[in-house]
Design brief:
Length: 460
C-alpha cells in the first residue's frame, strides 16, 4: 500500500512546495495543506493543533524544519506520526533520498592522546581542569608532556590524581628518569622508548610507544619490536610524522612501508607536527590525517592544542575519526556524512537562484524585510521592492530605517551575516546564526529578535 504524506506549509511557500514535489516524482502519495499563515517558519505545534481539522487520510505529516513546539505530544493528540522536514524547501529531495538517513557517528577506532605540553609548569589542579576539558573535546588519553632539563616534582601527584579521577594517562618524555617515575606512578602509556631505552619496559608495567633510535630508521624499530614481542608485552609503534618541508612526504611513505611490513601492529600518528606547524585551518588537516589513519589502520594519534590556530584540534580530530569510521564501514567516500568539518564552505550554499528570489519578492504584500542570498549576491525585499548588493552599506540608503534604531540594528546584523555567507559560500538563513561546524566553541544563544525588528520580519 502506498504511503500518503500530508505536507503543512504557509502561503508564501505553497506554490514552491507543489513544484518541488511534482519534480521529485515521489514513490508516495501526498497532499499539501496551507495552514492559513503567511510564513511557514512561524508555524508551531500549538498552531497546528488549533488549525488542522483534517489529516486528509495521511499516514504521516511533514512540517517545516523550523516548526517549534512539542511534535511528539501533537502526534499523540492527532494519532498520526509528525516529523520536521528540511529548513529549506530546496533540500526536500535530499530529505527523502538515500543520503537522508541519519548516519551513526557514535563509533570510532582511533584513540586520541591529548597532550598537556607544559605539565611541569602547571599545577595539579590546572592539569586536572585541562584533562576534563580535553575529555569533553573527545580525548581518550591525557598525555603528560615533560620538558627537557625542567624539574617536575609534582609528576607523581598529577598522574595519581588523574588516575583517581578515572582518566587514562600517558607520560611523554625522552628522559629515562621521567619515564621510570611516570610508570611507577601508574601511567598507562609512556612516550617514547627506543631500542636503546627498551630496558625501561622491564622496570614498569606501562605500555610503551616505540620510536626509531635514529630518525627514520625502521631497522631499529624492528629490533625493539622483536624484543617486546619475545617478552609478550603490548606496545604501540610511532615511525614519526615530520613537518611539511622537513620530511613530511617521506614520513608518510615510511608509515606506509611499516604497515606493509607489520599489518597487525598497533601504530600511532603524531598529528600535532602538521596541525601545529602549518598555518592553515586545522579542520581540513585533521580530516586528511584521519583519512590516512583509516587507510593504514592507525588506531592512535597524539594531538596538541598549543598554537592559537589549533585551538580546536582535539575536537576536530574526534569528529574526523568518527566520519572516517562511518565512511569506511559503509565502503563509501567521506562525503555527506557530517558537515562539522566544513567551517568555511558548504556543499549547497545557495538553494535559490535570482529568478526564484524575484518570484518570492513578487508575492510579498507587507513591509517586513526578507533577506536571501544567491550566486548573484545579497537580496533584501519587501512589498516596496527588491534590492541586490554584495556590500550591505550599498543597501542601507534604500531601507528607510534611519529613524528606527532597533530595526536598523537587526537588518545590519542580518545583512552582515548574509554578506559573509555569500563571500565564503555558506548557507544563509535569516534569523539564524551562521553555522561554523566544530570550529565554534559553543552554540550561539537564542535572542528575542522581536526586540530589534517588527513581527514577521523574516522569510521562510
Amino acid at each position: 500500500m502506498t504511503e500518503k504524506i500530508l505536507f503543512l506549509t504557509g502561503k508564501l511557500a505553497e506554490k514552491q512546495l507543489h513544484q518541488i514535489l511534482e519534480k521529485m516524482q515521489p514513490e508516495f502519495d501526498y497532499h499539501v495543506h496551507q495552514l492559513g499563515i503567511k510564513v511557514a517558519a512561524l508555524m508551531t505545534a500549538d498552531m497546528i493543533g488549533r488549525r488542522l481539522k483534517d489529516t486528509f487520510g495521511a499516514d504521516r505529516i511533514i512540517v517545516p524544519g523550523r516548526c517549534r513546539g512539542d511534535l511528539e505530544r501533537l502526534s499523540k493528540d492527532l494519532n498520526i506520526p509528525i516529523e520536521r522536514g528540511t529548513d529549506e524547501l530546496k533540500d526536500l529531495p535530499l530529505f527523502f533520498g538515500k543520503q537522508a538517513h541519519k548516519i551513526d557517528l557514535s563509533h570510532y577506532k582511533v584513540k586520541i592522546f591529548a597532550e598537556i605540553v607544559d605539565a611541569p609548569n602547571v599545577s595539579v589542579e590546572e592539569v586536572v581542569e585541562r584533562a576534563y576539558y580535553y575529555k569533553t573535546q573527545g580525548a581518550d588519553v591525557i598525555d603528560i608532556g615533560c620538558l627537557p632539563e625542567t624539574p617536575f616534582p609534582q609528576m607523581e601527584e598529577i598522574i595519581q590524581t588523574l588516575k583517581a579521577e578515572g582518566f587514562t594517562v600517558s607520560i611523554d618524555s625522552l628522559d629515562d628518569d621521567d619515564l621510570l617515575r611516570g610508570g611507577g606512578a601508574g601511567a598507562d602509556y609512556m612516550l617514547s622508548l627506543t631500542d636503546d631505552s627498551i630496558w625501561i619496559a622491564d622496570e614498569v608495567a606501562t605500555t610503551p610507544i616505540l620510536i626509531p633510535a635514529q630518525h627514520g630508521d625502521l631497522n631499529s624499530l624492528n629490533k625493539a619490536i622483536t624484543t617486546l614481542q619475545e617478552k609478550g608485552r603490548d606496545f604501540i609503534v610511532d615511525p614519526i610524522l615530520d613537518p611539511i618541508h622537513f620530511g613530511f612526504t617521506e614520513s608518510i611513505v615510511r608509515y606506509h612501508q611499516f604497515r606493509q611490513q607489520h599489518p597487525e601492529i598497533e601504530m600511532m600518528l603524531g598529528v600535532g607536527n602538521i596541525t601545529e606547524l602549518t598555518h592553515a585551518d586545522t579542520a581540513g588537516m585533521n580530516a586528511l590525517l584521519m583519512g590516512i589513519c583509516s587507510e593504514l589502520n592507525i588506531n592512535n594519534i597524539l594531538a596538541t592544542q598549543v598554537s592559537q590556530h589549533a585551538c580546536r584540534a582535539v575536537k576536530e580530530a574526534d569528529l574526523a575519526r568518527r566520519i572516517m569510521f562511518a565512511a569506511k564501514e559503509s565502503n563509501s567516500l567521506p562525503k555527506h556524512v557530517n558537515s562539522g568539518l566544513m567551517s568555511l564552505h558548504e556543499t549547497s550554499p545557495f538553494p535559490y537562484q535570482l529568478a526564484e528570489v524575484k518570484e518570492f519578492a513578487a508575492q510579498v504584500r507587507d513591509p517586513s524585510y526578507r533577506i536571501q542570498t544567491s550566486p548573484e549576491g545579497v537580496h533584501i525585499y519587501n512589498r516596496d521592492g527588491l534590492h541586490t548588493a554584495i556590500d550591505p552599506f550599498d543597501l542601507y540608503p534604500k531601507l528607510q530605517v534611519e529613524n528606527d534604531g532597533g530595526h536598523a540594528f537587526y537588518l545590519g546584523v542580518e545583512l552582515a551575516r548574509a554578506q559573509i555567507a555569500y563571500q565564503l559560500g555558506k548557507r544563509f538563513n535569516q534569523d539564524e546564526a551562521l553555522l561554523w561546524g566544530c570550529a565554534a566553541e559553543v552554540e550561539e544563544t537564542e535572542v528575542d529578535l522581536h526586540t530589534f525588528k517588527p513581527a514577521g520580519s523574516t522569510f521562510k
